[in-house]
Amino acid sequence: MKVALITGVTGQDGAYLAQNLLERGYLVYGAYRRTSTVNFWRLEFLGIDKNPQLHLIEYDLTDLGSAIRLIEFCKPNEVYNLAAQSFVGVSFDQPVTTAEITGIGPVHLLEAIRILDRNIRFYQASTSEMFGKVQAVPQNENTPFYPRSPYGVAKLYAHWMTVNYRESYGIFATSGILFNHESPLRGREFVTRKITDSVAKIKLGLLDCIELGNLDVKRDWGYAKEYVEGMRRMLQASEPDSFVLATNRTETVRDFVIMAFKAAGFDILFRGENENEIGYDGSNGKVLLRINPKFYRPAEVELLMGDPSKARSALDWKAETSLEQLCKLMLDSDLKRNSLGASF
Ligand code: NDP
Ligand code: GDR
Fold first, then answer.
1. How far apart are alpha carbons 171 and 220 in whole angstroms?
2. Residue 259 is part of which domain span?
């Protein structure tokens, strides 16, 4: 039986990946950090929290000794490092914490593997945020990096350390450069889920208006459940490498807003520009969206669009779910959760 260790198992990707590997008969160790209130709602949502093949184990990414003990105890064949301070906006306010968790944290795991067992396969959750300021469109594994946030910089360090441990010590260390991927399990602070959750609340009469930041930025959004399968395939490949996972389609935040309101039966129209822009209901003129400058970032990543052809040819991986389908999936889930009064 294969043994996998997933850090960040309480997050969106960690929960989907645990589900994927359990379905394939893996023994899964899910590492989570200690918090004053347990945070297993995603595992419960997927119905895997009580699966006897899933063992939840406390671990903090910032602690080297803890990394060594974790690897020693679990004896995994595969380690998926998904834990991170993953919110770009917060990284501007907490750059040092972000560097420690998101940048140095993965090196603790790489060191533990180097010390204990170099046959362990390692996956690092790298990101399209490393491309940052646009150097080329679409972005692929050879596009130069130019991160635009403390989060992007921290991830770039971890990415290069992954490459370095691969080249220096022969460790099967792979870096997945994933573009934005969303789902009903997305945290509510990220823009797609913030939008579908707010539109659901507006539809149910629980909210009047949504507040957002920059509507002009473009993102390549895919479905998280499909992206975790790409991670799994990367660790089954014959050689460690770096791979982009993306849809190769890009849309603005405004497009996603229109899509979500449309799926809920609203016809949202826009007037004004930048901080004065509003979105209003075309049928009755009611304001449905306002811009709040507090959601703008000090430096922005304007345009992401990934070229996943390498993953297509080497891993036979392809994003299947369209953005319209994804938006509807998330909206339906938020309508259901909000009508039941759920708190997540
Ligand atoms: P989430 O924010 O949903 O999950 C992050 C996880 O990391 C949570 O389980 C969190 O725990 C855990 N964590 C945070 N700090 C620590 C710490 N100090 N020690 C141990 N665990 C910690 O992220 P996603 O699931 O969306 O993303 C997974 C990974 O992929 C992240 O590394 C992210 O940066 C990266 N990524 C994500 C993309 C996306 O579009 N989703 C795209 C590209 C990369 P807790 O629940 O306690 O907060
Ligand atoms: P991102 O995702 O920064 O791409 O990082 P997020 O959903 O936070 O932002 C996407 C874009 O939307 C703009 N935006 C807003 N964002 C948020 N969160 N809230 C708002 O109100 C708002 N208004 C406009 C942002 O400025 C941004 O341009 C995500 C994370 O999952 C990272 O961990 C991951 O590495 C990258 O995706 C790929």
1. 31
2. 191-216+252-301+329-340
